[in-house]
């Protein structure tokens, strides 16, 4: 990857030190423009919340930024390096790690194995060295220690030897967050970390998100519930129908008429497009599925 | 509703199948003929070669012979009832001494052809005399003939593929036992003829109805309980492989490994349109296919149940939440899919003869057709089938005909690589 | 034949050359399907290129044994790359259809009359095992113990084959306990999760496809060596499906699953075959010919095989010995 540094478009920049800058990112599905973001920035060391009603294109935007989907147009840089066309695994290696709205724990692997997988630069992950335990056992032990520390922090250490598939929905969210930390990312991107989690656990999850910032990481998280983000985010970006309609500190944004309209509009407007309807349904389905999964495995 | 659809289908089929007899019968003669036309291509237009002796041998002994007439054509009736000749191997020989001076076979070594009699159709043998005519007319004829054959094949495939596609669309099952649904129809019709001496048409009609019931039984006894258990799609795919092996061997158990042939449906004399030959039987089969395909498409397009089917294919959860009885849709799909598969088996058997694994043999072609058109879409499946049919037949213009299926398989792989959603399918949304 | 003959016959087959061939093929498939979750329905093609490289290089082009063998394995690498580069990005069920189609296409081409001089058409290649026979150290009278009888060369093949199978199991064990194996298993569970953690999923899938394919080629090579023949009919789609059955009986994603599966599968299948053969043979068979002729008896094992594959997938997807939580193949 050539280090193709681009001067970020300073005209619109309201922030001093941006870790991620995106310009003109669009993504169309058939006739529907799911994402059409003119300009987007994430400030280093802060918690940025990306909110918006269901079907606003948040997750799609998220997928574009992390390389899981390809945009029709647009440029974006992470620490000054262009990420256009960079595959997801390389995005992660650069220090930008994501989680998923539908948790993706590796069910038939133990919790500790889920964690170990996250560690980077493992010698034992190369084919020939993997055959000789001596070459990687030392590193494996270090990774295990680090994993156990993280699990303890997320109160999952007692579950280390359980299959990840046996965890509850909330525990899976925690495991996914902990596993992402094994990569030691500069920027951690959480896709609806609160979805399908019971209220008691939500508070503790919020606490964990804050602690990420406190240890010097940058956090971007997607959430559709406005109230959830008020307390913990430093900056809020609001998306509706694929566009960014407002951004600013939480209190300012919450009072913004455009934002209120966006939410009320999406929820109460009778003329829902078929696609929006589908998205709402898909989200509901996802939640149901997550619940069912949690039940099945409890 | 369901009954009405079934009744409609059967009436349409009945009428068509009756239609198949009348014109064909007019041209009937009892015996199987070995026919051909000798023309010397040293001149343009080619000159007929009369007076050449052609003989037919079986087990080394001559059983019939004939001489080419003034127009160069010959027609040698084989002794014995067609039914007794099935499965026999005959050798057709040309007596090169009777060729006029200067008129030599293009391939001097190719004086005899070995033919296995699979159907009661006439057998066409072509001896080329004189230099290869590298003119565009010959090539065009070949392309035209392949095109016609390809469309006929495509229509048969479409009939076979629709059930697979509908089931995939509504339940997500990639059914490797679909070939056995096809075989079921072919064997059932044969059973009624062979055991009870039924005429072809009632036998075929009952076989199609039973095929629908068999489709339903497949779903009720196996797939529905598995869906209820929450069995994964890959697990179901492997179960369908087991089912395919199981049924195929059950079929062989009861019907043996022989090639079978229906009786009472004469092939009729070849129709010649220009230099392209069309067998009336193949033509009527194609007509049946077209009508059935049109009826099914209209049903899916117009009827309430058809619309429900499309809704379920589109998005099962949305369909269920909007009050569609998904279970009923799936039940109907299995009945209709089974009946269509059974009908395609019968039609296939009528064209080419069949054995206990006729469906399994064409399964990959059917997969190719369905995938090409976009898994689970009706129009796509039909278009995909025609394209696969054309590809298979057209490829034999360039490649040895033993490799004609390979073309379709290679195209299948390529399509999957370039456009996994098929030619007409919708791009899938990521994330 | 006495009843004890049915038992000993089944045991002979259960540990005989056929079992070895399917065991090796299943060890390869285990890496594809069991550990990585790749639904490769074209394992027969890997076997075929291995077997055909051996057979045709020796018979058609007069090569000696060992170079042919090496080329056979290299051909599997080439096939894996050609097949994998495009197909590994496909969804599981599309991969299945692409691989099954590719395998059938390869089989029809290698078996075509047009390539008769090189590959022998439908008869394939035969009589190319002199090199292997010359290595045989088993006494020419064969081996007899516990009422079992093996011909000399068969027993030699068994020694070589089972040694190879055990070595490969050890190899798979070493791989799968390592972080490399962990990445494969994680890909099986959820490849997007693995991507999001910075692993090059595509590269790992390719490594798995090549490795499993090379082991599949070894199975094809053993098949050629054991029967002194390779023919298109040996490598039909059903060969792949039987390999799946072997793997699933023993338990996918278990190191010794393919070994256990092959032993049980061949013991059971040959036992059934011998049983029904005995029931229908003789002047006054136990099962009258009106119910089952001896031709029909030979189909019983395949009928049961289909049933077993269905039942095991439905009721014990983790295999006969497996732990359901870890090994069940579920909705992914």
Report on the structure:
The complex is a heterotrimer of chains A (298), B (431) and C (332). By secondary structure, chain A is an alpha/beta fold. Chain A has helices at 58-65, 88-93, 111-118, 127-130, 133-153, 169-182, 199-214, 226-230, 250-255, 257-268, 274-297; strands at residues 18-29, 32-43, 47-51, 73-78, 81-82, 96-98, 187-191, 218-223, 235-240, 243-248. Chain A has a domain at 18-94 and 225-297: Rossmann fold, CATH 3.40.50. Chain A has eleven helices and ten strands. In chain A, helix 3 runs parallel beside helix 6 (169-182) and helix 5 packs across helix 6. Chain B has two domains: 2-18 and 142-418, ABC transporter involved in vitamin B12 uptake, BtuC, CATH 1.10.3470; 33-116, Immunoglobulin-like (Sandwich), CATH 2.60.40. In chain B, the strands form four sheets. A four-stranded antiparallel sheet of chain B has the order 5-4-7-8, with no helix packed on it. A three-stranded mixed sheet of chain B has the order 6-1-9, with no helix packed on it. A two-stranded antiparallel ribbon of chain B has the order 2-3. Chain C has a single domain (3-327), classed as Orthogonal Bundle (ABC transporter involved in vitamin B12 uptake, BtuC). Chain C has helices at 3-14, 17-35, 43-59, 65-87, 92-110, 116-119, 130-133, 152-176, 179-189, 191-196, 201-227, 237-250, 257-280, 294-297, 300-315, 324-327; strands at residues 125-126, 143-145, 148-150, 229-230. In chain C, the strands form two sheets. In chain C, strands 1-4 form a two-stranded antiparallel ribbon. In chain C, strands 2-3 form a two-stranded antiparallel ribbon. The longest helix of chain C is centred in the middle third of the chain and has 27 residues, at 201-227. Chain C starts with a helix and ends in a 5-residue tail after the last helix. The B-C interface holds B 174, 222, 226, 229-235, 237-239, 241-250, 252-253, 256, 364, 367-368, 371, 400, 402-403, 405-406, 409-410, 412-413, 416-417, 420 and C 39, 86-87, 90-94, 96-98, 100-102, 104-105, 108-109, 112-114, 238, 241, 244-245, 248, 295-296, 299, 302-303, 305-311, 313-314, 317, 329-332. Chain C: It is a multi-pass membrane protein. Chain C: It is found in: Cell membrane. Chain C: Keywords: Cell membrane, Membrane, Transmembrane, Transmembrane helix.
């Amino acid at each position: 990857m050539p280090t193709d540094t681009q001067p970020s478009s300073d005209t619109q920049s309201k922030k001093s030190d941006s870790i991620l800058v995106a310009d003109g990112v669009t993504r169309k599905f058939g006739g529907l423009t799911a994402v059409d973001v003119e300009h987007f920035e994430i400030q280093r060391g802060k918690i940025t919340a990306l909110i918006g009603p269901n079907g606003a294109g948040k997750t799609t935007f998220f997928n574009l930024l992390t390389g899981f989907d390809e945009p029709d147009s647009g440029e974006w840089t992470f620490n000054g390096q262009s990420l256009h066309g960079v595959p997801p695994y390389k995005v992660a290696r650069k220090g930008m790690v994501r989680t998923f709205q539908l948790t993706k724990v590796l069910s038939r692997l133990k919790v500790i194995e889920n964690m170990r997988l996250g560690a980077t630069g493992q010698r034992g992950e190369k084919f020939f060295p993997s055959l000789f335990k001596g070459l990687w056992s030392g590193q494996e032990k270090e990774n295990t220690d680090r994993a156990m520390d993280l699990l303890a922090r997320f109160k999952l250490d007692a579950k280390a030897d359980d299959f990840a598939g046996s965890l509850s929905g909330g525990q899976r969210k925690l495991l996914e967050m902990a596993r992402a930390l094994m990569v030691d990312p500069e920027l951690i991107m959480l896709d609806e970390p609160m979805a399908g989690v019971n209220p008691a656990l939500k508070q503790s999850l919020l606490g964990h998100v804050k602690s990420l910032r406190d240890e010097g990481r940058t956090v971007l998280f997607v959430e559709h519930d406005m109230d959830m983000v008020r307390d913990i985010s430093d900056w809020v970006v609001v998306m509706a129908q694929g566009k960014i309609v407002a951004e600013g500190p939480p209190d300012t944004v919450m009072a913004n008429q455009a934002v209120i309209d966006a939410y009320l509009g999406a929820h109460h407007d009778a003329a829902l497009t078929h696609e929006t309807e589908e998205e709402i349904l898909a989200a509901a389905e996802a939640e149901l599925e997550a619940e069912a999964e949690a039940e099945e495995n409890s | 509703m369901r009954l009405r659809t079934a009744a409609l289908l059967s009436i349409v089929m009945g009428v068509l199948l009756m239609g198949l007899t009348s014109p064909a019968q007019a041209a009937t003669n009892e015996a199987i003929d070995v026919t051909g036309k000798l023309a010397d291509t040293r001149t343009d237009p080619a000159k007929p070669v009369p007076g050449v002796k052609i003989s037919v041998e079986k087990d080394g002994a001559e059983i019939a012979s004939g001489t080419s007439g003034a127009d160069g054509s010959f027609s040698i009736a084989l002794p014995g009832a067609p039914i007794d000749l099935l499965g026999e191997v005959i050798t057709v020989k040309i007596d090169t001494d009777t060729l006029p001076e200067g008129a030599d076979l293009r391939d001097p070594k190719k004086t005899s052809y070995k033919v296995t009699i699979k159907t009661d159709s006439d057998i066409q043998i072509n001896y080329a005399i004189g230099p290869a005519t590298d003119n565009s007319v010959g090539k065009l004829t070949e392309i035209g003939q392949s095109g016609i054959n390809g469309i006929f094949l495509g229509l048969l495939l479409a009939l076979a593929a629709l059930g697979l596609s509908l089931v995939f669309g509504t339940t997500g099952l990639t059914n490797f036992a679909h070939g056995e649904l096809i075989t079921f129809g072919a064997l059932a019709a044969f059973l009624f003829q062979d055991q009870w001496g039924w005429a072809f048409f009632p036998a075929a009609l009952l076989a199609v109805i039973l095929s629908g019931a068999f489709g339903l039984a497949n779903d009720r006894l196996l797939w529905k309980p598995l869906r209820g258990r929450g069995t994964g799609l890959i697990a179901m795919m492997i179960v369908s492989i087991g089912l395919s092996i199981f049924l195929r061997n059950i079929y062989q158990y009861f019907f043996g490994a022989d090639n079978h042939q229906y009786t009472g449906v004469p092939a009729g004399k070849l129709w010649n349109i220009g230099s392209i030959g069309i067998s009336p039987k193949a033509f009527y089969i194609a007509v049946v296919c077209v009508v059935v395909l049109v009826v099914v498409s209209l049903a899916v397009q117009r009827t309430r149940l058809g619309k429900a089917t499309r809704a379920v294919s589109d998005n099962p959860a949305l369909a269920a939440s909007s009050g569609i009885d998904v279970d009923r849709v799936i039940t109907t799909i299995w009945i209709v899919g089974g009946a269509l598969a059974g009908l395609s088996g019968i039609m296939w058997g009528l064209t080419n003869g069949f054995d206990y694994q006729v469906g399994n043999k064409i399964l990959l072609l059917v997969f190719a057709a369905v995938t090409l058109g976009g898994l689970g879409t009706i129009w796509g499946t039909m278009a995909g089938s025609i394209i696969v049919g054309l590809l298979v037949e057209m490829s034999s213009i360039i490649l040895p005909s033993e490799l004609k299926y390979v073309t379709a398989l290679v195209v299948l792989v390529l399509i999957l690589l370039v456009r996994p959603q098929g030619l007409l399918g919708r791009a899938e949304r990521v994330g | 034949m006495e009843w004890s003959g049915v038992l000993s016959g089944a045991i002979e087959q259960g540990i005989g050359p056929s079992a070895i061939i399917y065991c090796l093929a299943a060890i390869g498939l285990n890496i594809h399907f069991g550990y990585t979750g790749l639904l490769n329905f074209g394992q027969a093609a890997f076997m075929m290129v291995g077997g055909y490289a051996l057979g045709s290089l020796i018979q058609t082009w007069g090569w000696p044994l060992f170079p042919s063998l090496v080329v056979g394995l290299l051909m599997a690498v080439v096939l894996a790359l050609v097949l994998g580069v495009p197909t590994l990005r496909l969804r599981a069920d599309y991969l299945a259809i692409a691989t099954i189609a590719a395998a059938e296409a390869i089989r029809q081409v290698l078996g075509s009359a047009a390539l008769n001089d090189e590959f022998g058409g439908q008869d394939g290649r035969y009589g190319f095992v002199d090199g292997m026979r010359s290595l045989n150290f088993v006494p020419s009278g064969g081996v007899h113990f516990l009422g079992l009888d093996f011909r000399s060369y068969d027993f030699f093949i068994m020694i070589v084959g089972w040694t190879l199978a055990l070595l490969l199991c050890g190899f798979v064990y070493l791989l799968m306990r390592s972080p490399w194996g962990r990445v494969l298993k994680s890909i099986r569970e959820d490849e997007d999760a693995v991507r999001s953690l910075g692993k090059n999923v595509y590269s790992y899938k390719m490594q798995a496809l090549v490795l499993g394919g090379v082991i599949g080629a070894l199975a094809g090579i053993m098949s050629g060596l054991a029967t002194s023949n390779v023919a298109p009919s040996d490598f039909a789609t059903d060969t792949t499906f039987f390999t799946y059955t072997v793997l699933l009986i023993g338990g996918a994603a278990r190191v010794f699953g393919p070994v256990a599966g092959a032993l049980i599968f061949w013991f059971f299948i040959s036992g059934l075959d011998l049983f029904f053969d005995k029931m229908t043979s003789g002047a006054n068979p136990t099962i009258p010919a009106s119910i089952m002729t001896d031709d029909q008896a030979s189909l019983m094992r395949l009928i049961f095989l289909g049933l077993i594959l269905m039942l095991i997938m439905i009721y014990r997807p983790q295999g006969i010995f497996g732990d359901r939580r870890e090994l069940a193949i579920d909705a992914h």
